[in-house]
Automatic annotation (TrEMBL):
This is D-xylose 1-dehydrogenase (NADP(+), D-xylono-1,5-lactone-forming). The keyword Oxidoreductase applies. One of its GO terms (molecular function) is nucleotide binding. It comes from the Eukaryota. It catalyses: D-xylose + NADP(+) = D-xylono-1,5-lactone + NADPH + H(+). Keywords: Oxidoreductase. InterPro entries: Gfo/Idh/MocA-like_OxRdtase_N, Gfo/Idh/MocA_domain, GFO_IDH_MocA-like_dom, NAD(P)-bd_dom_sf. Residues 7-135 form the Gfo/Idh/MocA-like oxidoreductase N-terminal domain. It is an enzyme of class 1 (oxidoreductase). It comes from Talaromyces atroroseus.
C-alpha cells in the first residue's frame, strides 16, 4: 500500500468539542474507515491562556511535535499546520475562519458554519478566491449509517419520499443546565436551540429531499413556516418548529406533488425521555413504498429500520421490517469520518466536499435565517455582520 496522505491539524479553541474531536483524530488510526489518510495534531491554540493549551495538550497526550499557542493569530501562521479546525462558539466562526483563510490555511469549522447565510457566502467566496478548502463540521453527514440510508433513498427502496419528520430535542431543566451565559442560550454567542440542535433536523431533511437528488434537480424549499419559543431570560430560542415544502423532482405521474418536512428542536422536552428509544424514532423518512426510521439522537444515529409497505397483504408471511445497526465504538464519538473526508479532499485538490457542498451549507443557513425572521430571534449586529476585523 502507498504511504498515507498525512494531514497536519491546528486546533483553534480548547473547549468541549475541540477535546472530543481531537480525541477522535488520535483514535483514527485504530478506527478510521479510510487507511489512506493519517491525521497529526501539530498545533493547539487557546485564545485565553497558555495554561489552557498546556492542559489540553497534556490531557490528550499530544506528541512533542505539537506546538502550543496562546493566540489564534500565531497558530494560523504556523507552517506545520495544513488545516485549522475551528472549535469556537458560532458567534465567532466568521472571524475565526476568515483569520485562518487569510493565513492561507484550509478550514474545517464547527456547525453552524456561520450565524447567517450572508456570512457563509462571504467565507466561501474568500475560500474560492484563495483556492482553499472550507467545510462545515457537520459530522453526521459522514457517518457510514448516513451514506447507507442515503443510498437506499437514491435507489428508490422506499419509493418517492414525500415526508420527513426529524426531532432533535434535549429535555433539560433549561435554567439549571444552561443558565444565561452558556453558548446554548446566550444570544451574544448566537445561542439557541435552532442553530445548535435544529441544524441536525434540517440536515436530515436536506439529505433526504435535496442531497439525495442529482445535483441538477436540487431545489431549495419553496415554503417555510416557523414558530419559536424564546427564552424569557435571554431571548434565544428554546424551542423551534419549522414546516418546509420541497418541490419533488423525481419522475412521477403527478408533477404537482410536493414533499413536506418538519424540523423540530426543543430544550425542555426530549426526543428520547427514557434514553431507550421507547418514544420512537428521531427521524422518519416516509416514502410511497415504505419508510426508513432512525433512532436518535439525530446527530449520531446508530440504528435504522426499513419498513416496507404491505399492500393488502393480509396473512401474507413477508418480513416487512429490516433493522440495521451501525454501532460507533464506545471509546470514540465518530468524528474521524468527517476528518477523513477533509483529508481526501485535500489530497485530491478539492476546495469543497461533494458530500457537503457550499451551496447546501448556505441553503440550510437560509432556512435558519428565515425561521429566525418569522420567530423573532434577533442576534446582536456585531455577530450578524460580515465585516472582518483583522487580528
Ligand atoms: N459537532 C458536535 O457534535 C458539536 C459541535 N459543537 C459546536 O462547537 C462549537 C463550540 O462548542 P463547545 O466546544 O461546546 O463550546 P465551549 O464553550 O466548550 O468551547 C468554546 C471554546 O471557544 C473558545 N472561545 C473563543 N472565543 C470565545 C468566546 N468569546 N467565548 C467563549 N469561548 C470562546 C474558548 O477556547 P479558548 O479559551 O481555548 O480559546 C472556548 O473554550 C459550537 O459552534 C458548537 O455548535 C459543540 C458541541 C458538539
Ligand atoms: O452539536 C451538538 O451535538 C451534540 C450535542 O450534545 C451538542 O450540544 C451540540 O452542540
Amino acid at each position: 500500500m502507498d504511504s498515507p496522505f498525512i494531514l497536519r491539524w491546528g486546533i483553534m479553541g480548547t473547549g468541549n468539542i475541540a477535546k472530543t474531536f481531537t480525541k477522535d483524530l488520535l483514535l483514527s488510526q485504530k478506527w478510521q474507515s479510510d487507511r489512506t489518510i493519517s491525521h497529526v495534531v501539530t498545533a493547539v491554540a487557546s485564545s485565553s491562556s497558555m495554561e489552557k493549551t498546556r492542559h489540553f495538550v497534556n490531557e490528550l497526550r499530544l506528541s512533542s511535535a505539537c506546538t502550543n499557542y496562546d493566540s489564534y493569530k500565531f497558530m494560523v501562521a504556523d507552517p506545520k499546520v495544513d488545516v485549522v479546525y475551528v472549535a469556537t462558539p458560532h458567534s465567532h466562526h466568521f472571524q475565526h475562519v476568515m483569520l485562518a483563510l487569510e493565513s492561507g490555511k484550509h478550514v474545517l469549522c464547527e456547525k453552524p458554519l456561520t450565524v447567517n447565510a450572508y456570512q457563509a457566502r462571504t467565507l466561501c467566496e474568500e475560500a474560492r478566491k484563495r483556492n482553499l478548502f472550507l467545510m462545515e463540521a457537520m459530522w453526521t453527514r459522514f457517518l457510514p449509517i448516513t451514506s447507507d440510508v442515503l443510498e437506499k433513498i437514491r435507489r428508490g427502496q422506499i419509493g418517492e419520499v414525500l415526508r420527513v419528520v426529524v426531532d432533535t430535542s434535549f429535555g433539560d431543566d433549561v435554567e439549571k443546565t444552561w443558565g444565561t451565559q452558556h453558548r446554548m442560550l446566550n444570544r451574544d454567542l448566537a445561542g439557541g436551540a435552532l442553530l445548535d440542535l435544529g441544524i441536525y433536523s434540517l440536515t436530515w431533511i436536506f439529505l433526504c429531499l435535496y442531497h439525495a437528488l442529482p445535483e441538477s434537480l436540487r431545489q431549495a424549499p419553496s415554503g417555510i413556516a416557523a414558530q419559536m419559543t424564546l427564552n424569557h431570560l435571554t431571548g434565544a430560542d428554546e424551542a423551534s418548529s419549522i414546516l418546509l415544502t420541497f418541490p419533488t423532482s423525481a419522475p412521477n405521474d403527478v408533477p404537482e406533488w410536493k414533499s413536506q418536512a418538519v424540523a423540530l428542536t426543543n430544550l425542555r422536552v426530549s426526543t428520547d425521555p427514557d434514553g431507550k428509544n421507547s418514544a420512537g424514532p428521531a427521524i422518519r423518512i416516509q416514502g410511497t413504498k415504505g419508510e426508513i426510521q432512525l433512532d436518535g439522537p439525530s446527530f449520531r444515529p446508530e440504528r435504522y429500520r426499513v419498513i416496507s409497505r404491505c399492500d393488502g397483504a393480509e396473512g401474507q408471511d413477508i418480513e416487512s421490517v429490516k433493522v440495521v445497526d451501525y454501532p460507533v465504538p464506545s471509546e470514540a464519538k465518530g468524528m474521524y469520518w468527517e476528518a477523513d473526508e477533509v483529508g481526501r479532499c485535500l489530497r485530491d485538490g478539492k476546495i469543497q466536499s461533494q458530500s457537503l457542498p457550499w451551496e447546501e451549507i448556505i441553503a440550510v443557513l437560509e432556512v435558519m435565517d428565515e425561521a429566525r425572521r418569522q420567530g423573532g430571534l434577533i442576534y446582536p449586529e456585531a455577530i450578524e455582520n460580515a465585516s472582518y476585523s483583522s487580528y
